[in-house]
Amino acid sequence: NNNNNNNNNSADDAEVDLNRLMDSGDLEKERGITITSKVTRLDYTTNDGKEDYIINVVDTPGHADFAGEVDRILGTVDGVVLVVDAGEGPKSQTKYVLSCALNLGLKPIVVLNKADREESLGRLEGGETELELMDLFEALGADDNQMEYRTLYGSARGGWITEDVDVALKIASDGGVDKDGASSNMSGLLNAILEEIPEPPLHWYGESSDDEKNLSDYAEQPFSMTATTVGMDPYLGRTCTGRIYSGQIKIGEAVTLLKRQSGSDSEAVNNSNGPSSSVTGLFANRGVSRVSLEPAVAYAGDIVTLAGIPETMKVGDTLTSTDNQVPNAIDTPPLAPPTLSCLFGANNGPLAGREGTIVASSRVRARLINETDNNVTLTVELCEADAEKTVVFGRGELQIGILVEQMRREGYEMIITPPQIITSTCPTTGQKLEPYEEVVVDVDTEYSGTVVNALTGSRKGVLVEMVDDAQGKARLKFEIPSRGLLGFGPEVATATRGTAVMHHMYLEDREYAGPIGQGSDRGKLVCNEMGKATLFALESLQARGTLFVAPGEMVYPGMVIGENAKSGDLEVNPVRAKATNNMRTQAKDEKLYLTPPKKFSIEELIGYMSEDEVIEVTPQSVRLRKSELDSGVRERAARSRKKQMDASKAKGGKK
Question: Rounded CA gap, 159 and 80, in Å?
Answer without folding.
Answer: 20
